[in-house]
């Protein structure tokens, strides 16, 4: 009896200790059942019940596809208000983990960050910050990012805690989430520590968890640091997981790679194949939009047409953001599907009031570049853009809105726009200032009064613009930040107003040139076509000093200005040798298109590493290159094919011992058919003068195509007595009915006749500004290579620089003729 009574007493105690509310919540199958339990037990609910209920509400939503979620219904439910009130009253009773979970779930259920519950949760979390476990710290960091508090003192404290406890973090998910959240605040030292830690964690994590390496790549994108060793390690993992990915993840990764200028051939090809497999299952607007945006830019013609057909069917079901994404992709692939463009434009038109300012800027650019015609659409769009601009206080936003406004037709310019631009100019970086310069130039051209005088409103703007640009350069004290601002600088304003000051500033900061910024500086100097010996020497010194720290892929960018600008100094040969030896062991790891560009660059510098030539002109490599080119944008595709042809030509001419065949004859013929034969007035003038100097128009043949398809402006042949021989066919400029002057094209594809003994072919080329560095009369590498090749083909090459032909010394007919006579006859005698 005693035993039975004791057992009954134990059962009563256990029953009393059981939490019946938690048990009821635990068996709920949907949100309605959760709310039912909450409604029946309001008086009994403690902090654990509230946390469990809110967590379950988000979990049910999370398990649903995006389109089927009902967050708004949950927010408006009366029992959800009950949960919010109870949660706010019980914040101090919550444990650390529960506190952060509550904040996270509440934000996921779209409660406004300004809501008092969210504010109190954040405040309490701040007080407990130092005792949070790392899992809760990472989740809290996500909550702050959701509230746009990435630059807050609170995030600064999290960054400090991460720095102190980094060695104790072994969970890749926790680490990568924190990396992304604190990315706006990391110092170079912490950046390097995080990268090293990420590298170690990659080796121990589950390789199927591809979101971790994806977040590492996102971290690198956020801090604008293309650290190749970590990128390649992440790519290796991501590549193996491509078969598991959906279109959204593939699109995110490809977008990150593009931002980091990391175009991995294997990943692009695998992603393309996976996306094609997903076409049939992507039947709803959400999944199809993500697929279309990612696949269309790298798809073949048949696949593009198929995607456009599906888009046409789904167009009316797209929401505002989906329609914008499709429109931008149509512009990217240069679509001319007018019916689809009109349908997408119709959806966008109906939703113009929904878009935020930066989305409207994207709408404007896409629809203008798609050549969409609708005065009503663009009038409405313009009014909305002006409204946003009048109230914007962010320089980047004002810049973007002003730029797209200048793309729209407008009878007049609002003074409010000019006032807003004037107000933000002192806050703008160099890139934004350059954008405003382009915009102001466009306003000037479109202003009717500009034909008589420059309106004072523009004069003041330009003065402010110039002052701000020079002041920003004068205050620049960090080379890395300056190079980031200069990355996309171009155009007349920059070249005329800031280029010299920019070079002065770069030379002032040349002490900061190191192996980390050599590639960026090299690319900038190449792009602006500016030869600066002190900077080039500093680049060479920094590279040779720390070559082992540099990634092999950066050798291309490093050597580019030395080849393109034809810079020579006592250390340049040594630099090329060191860089070539550094990248050759990794030659098979190069992306095909990058290796072609690198090979061409070295060829310009008269450098032909045999291992590189063998690697490129290999059947397997060329097949892989063809596959990669199909995934690249058309402009890049054409550029790579042209560089491959030019490299093939250079190897055939300069390295016949490699026995590489010339396989671009048909390509060159097709290229010629697509090209035009228009000539400049200067070339017409030279042709006429040559006829007079040589003894007749038939003695100078225009637009001659040589073997290997070089086109020389003029060719003539001198016999052994230095007398010009007449061509059998008349050489003349053809002037058709349309009045355009073209070269005669009779020579294309025809065999060259044998020369009489002792005769010499002369190639006469006019060299315009593109053949010389911007700041000097120093001839660039490509013009030098062309001369080398023509000489190998048997020509005596006469180059006529533009600055000589257009000089004051050559201002009469006789002077020009004497100049040509000396170039052709005297120089030939010297080289004979």
Structure, explained:
There is one protein chain. The chain has 4 domains: 2-131, no CATH class; 165-278; 477-665, no CATH class; 673-831, no CATH class. 62% of the residues lie in helices and 3% in strands. A 4-stranded mixed sheet has the order 1-2-3-4, with helices on both faces.
N-to-C span: 129 Å
Weakly predicted, low-confidence segments: 1-16, 729-751
Radius of gyration: 34 Å
Number of domain modules: 4
Structural class: mainly alpha
Question: Taking strands numbered 1, 2, ... along the chain, how are they ordered across the largest sheet?
Answer: 1-2-3-4
Largest β-sheet summary = 4 strands, mixed
- Mean pLDDT, all residues: 91
Helix proportion range:
55-70%
Give the overall form.
Answer: elongated
Summary?
By secondary structure, the chain is mainly alpha-helical. The chain contains 41 helices and 4 strands. The longest helix has 21 residues, at about 635-655.
What is the strand and helix layout of this fold?
Layout: H1 2-17, H2 20-26, H3 31-40, H4 47-62, H5 71-76, H6 78-89, H7 96-108, H8 116-128, H9 134-146, H10 153-165, H11 172-182, H12 188-204, H13 211-222, H14 228-240, H15 247-259, H16 265-278, H17 285-295, H18 301-314, H19 320-332, H20 338-350, H21 357-369, H22 375-391, H23 395-405, H24 415-424, H25 430-446, H26 456-475, H27 479-486, H28 492-508, H29 518-528, H30 533-545, H31 555-564, H32 572-583, H33 592-604, H34 610-616, H35 619-629, H36 634-654, H37 665-674, H38 681-694, E1 701-705, E2 711-718, E3 760-767, H39 781-792, E4 795-801, H40 802-805, H41 813-831
Parallel strand pairs: 3-4
Antiparallel strand pairs: 1-2, 2-3
């Amino acid at each position: 009896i005693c035993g039975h009574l004791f057992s009954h007493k134990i059962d009563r105690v256990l029953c009393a200790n059981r939490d019946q509310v938690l048990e009821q919540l635990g068996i709920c199958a949907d949100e309605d059942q959760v709310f039912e339990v909450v409604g029946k037990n309001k008086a009994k609910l403690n902090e654990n019940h509230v946390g469990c209920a809110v967590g379950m509400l988000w979990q049910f939503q999370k398990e649903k596809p995006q389109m089927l979620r009902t967050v708004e219904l949950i927010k408006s439910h009366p029992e959800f208000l009950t949960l919010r009130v109870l949660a706010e009253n019980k914040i101090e009773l919550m444990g650390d983990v529960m506190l952060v979970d509550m904040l996270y779930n509440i934000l996921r259920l779209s409660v406004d960050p300004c809501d008092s519950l969210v504010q109190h949760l954040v405040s309490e979390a701040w007080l407990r910050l130092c005792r949070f476990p790392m899992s809760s710290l990472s989740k809290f960091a996500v909550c702050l990012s959701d509230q746009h508090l990435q630059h807050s003192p609170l995030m600064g404290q999290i960054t400090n805690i991460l720095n102190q406890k980094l060695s104790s973090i072994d969970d890749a998910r926790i680490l990568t989430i924190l990396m992304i959240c604190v990315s706006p605040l990391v110092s170079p030292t912490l950046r390097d520590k995080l990268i090293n830690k990420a590298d170690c964690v990659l080796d121990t994590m589950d390789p199927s968890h591809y979101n971790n390496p994806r977040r590492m790549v996102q971290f690198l994108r956020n801090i604008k640091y293309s650290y190749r060793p970590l990128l390649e390690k992440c790519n290796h993992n991501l590549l193996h997981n491509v078969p598991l990915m959906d279109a959204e993840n593939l699109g995110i990764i490809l977008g990150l790679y593009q931002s980091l200028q990391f175009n991995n051939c294997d990943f692009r090809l695998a992603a393309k194949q996976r996306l094609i497999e997903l076409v049939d299952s992507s039947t709803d607007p959400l999944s199809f939009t993500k697929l279309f945006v990612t696949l269309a830019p790298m798809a073949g013609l048949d696949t593009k047409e198929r995607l456009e057909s599906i888009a046409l069917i789904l167009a009316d079901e797209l929401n505002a953001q989906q329609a914008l994404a499709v429109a931008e992709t149509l512009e990217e692939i240069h679509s001319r599907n007018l019916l689809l463009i009109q349908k997408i434009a119709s959806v966008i038109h109906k939703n113009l009031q929904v878009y935020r300012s930066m989305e409207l800027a994207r709408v404007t650019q896409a629809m203008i570049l798609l050549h969409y015609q609708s005065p009503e659409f663009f009038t409405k769009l313009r009014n909305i853009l002006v409204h946003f601009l009048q109230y914007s206080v962010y320089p980047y936003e004002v810049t973007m809105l002003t730029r797209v406004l200048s793309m729209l037709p407008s009878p007049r310019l609002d003074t409010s726009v000019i006032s807003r631009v004037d107000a933000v100019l002192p806050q703008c970086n160099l890139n934004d200032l350059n954008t405003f310069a382009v915009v102001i130039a466009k306003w000037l051209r479109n202003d009717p009064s500009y034909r008589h005088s420059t309106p004072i409103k523009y004069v003041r703007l330009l003065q402010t613009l110039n002052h701000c640009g020079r002041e920003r350069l004068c205050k620049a004290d960090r080379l890395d930040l300056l190079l980031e601002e200069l990355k996309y600088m171009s155009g007349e304003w920059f070249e005329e107003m800031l280029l010299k000051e920019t070079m002065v500033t770069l030379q002032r900061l040349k002490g900061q040139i190191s192996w980390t910024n050599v590639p960026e500086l090299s690319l900038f100097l190449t792009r602006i076509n500016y030869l600066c010996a002190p900077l080039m020497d500093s680049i060479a010194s920094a590279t040779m000093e720390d070559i082992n720290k540099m990634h092999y892929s950066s050798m291309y960018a490093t050597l580019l200005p030395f080849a393109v600008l034809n810079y020579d100094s006592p250390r340049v040969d040594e630099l090329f040798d060191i860089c070539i030896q550094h990248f050759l062991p990794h030659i098979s790891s190069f992306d095909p298109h990058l290796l072609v560009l690198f090979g061409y660059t070295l060829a310009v510098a008269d450098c032909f590493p045999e291992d590189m030539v063998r690697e490129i002109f290999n059947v397997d490599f060329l097949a892989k290159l063809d596959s990669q080119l199909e995934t690249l944008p058309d402009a890049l595709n054409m550029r790579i094919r042209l560089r491959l042809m030019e490299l093939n030509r250079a190897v055939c001419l300069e390295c016949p011992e490699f026995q590489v065949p010339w396989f671009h004859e048909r390509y060159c013929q097709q290229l010629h058919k697509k090209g035009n034969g228009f000539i400049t007035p200067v070339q017409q003038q030279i042709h006429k003068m040559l006829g007079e100097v040589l003894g007749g128009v038939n003695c100078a043949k225009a637009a001659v195509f040589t073997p290997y398809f070089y086109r020389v402006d003029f060719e003539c042949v001198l016999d052994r007595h230095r007398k010009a021989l007449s061509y059998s066919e008349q050489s003349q400029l053809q002037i058709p009915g349309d009045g355009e002057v073209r070269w005669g094209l009779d020579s294309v594809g025809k065999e060259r006749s044998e020369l009489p003994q002792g005769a010499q072919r002369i190639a006469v080329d006019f060299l315009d500004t593109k053949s010389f560095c911007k700041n000097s009369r120093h001839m660039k590498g490509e013009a030098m290579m062309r001369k080398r090749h023509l000489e190998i083909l048997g020509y005596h090459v006469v180059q006529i620089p533009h600055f000589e032909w257009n000089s004051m010394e050559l201002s009469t007919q006789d002077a020009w003729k004497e100049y040509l006579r000396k170039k052709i006859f005297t120089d030939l005698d010297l080289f004979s």
